[in-house]
Specification:
Layout lengths: L1 H5 L4 E6 L4 H6 L9 E4 L2 E6 L1 H12 L3 H9 L1 H9 L3 H15 L1 E2 L2 E2 L3 E5 L3 H14 L7 H13 L6 E6 L3 H17 L3 E7 L1
Parallel strand pairs: 1-3, 1-6, 7-8
Antiparallel strand pairs: 2-3, 4-5
Helix pairs in contact: 3-4, 3-6, 6-8, 7-8
Amino acid sequence: ALEAARRGRRPLIVELGHRHTMKSIFGVGELGYEPSPVGRGVHAMQLEFDGALTDYMNEHVKVPRLARRVLANQALRRFFEAAPAVGEIATLNKLSALERERRGGAPRWDLIFVDLDATGHALMLLNLAKVMDGLVGDGPLRRLLDGFSVLLNDPRKTMLSLVTLPRDLPAQETVELYTTLCSDHRIARGALFIN
């Protein structure tokens, strides 16, 4: 991201979940749900469940009052937090929106770096379209999943780099993830970073 900014590009770093790595790397305060400058031409944001779910509801529930009532209902809120794939669907929706975002007709972000969760969570996100294939009919969710699959499988737009620690368990997980990606995915693979 720093190198892209140095070359005059507009990079965005998106942290998923509740990690706060960019805060310490760039020496800034808490990152919020909206992209904010962290220094040297780089923007970053924290993509958390509540904001992503709110965006999803506001976008797909066409009656704003109904969307607000659904989001305010604590029982439904707990259901959404516990239900499989709800968080991943809301996350895909937000990532797709960031990729489509325009300023003056041009993409707002030249590059979007997504800091995925650990191997199991990353695979759930990457496999979501395949997992939901027989469960979802036509409609907004199908369009979201299909659109994200196209984005993931376009080597001009998406590249997956792997990051590991030089320890037995993380290295083994990374080898297994790489093997799974080679056999099950068409996602272009980038570099291996050993942290």
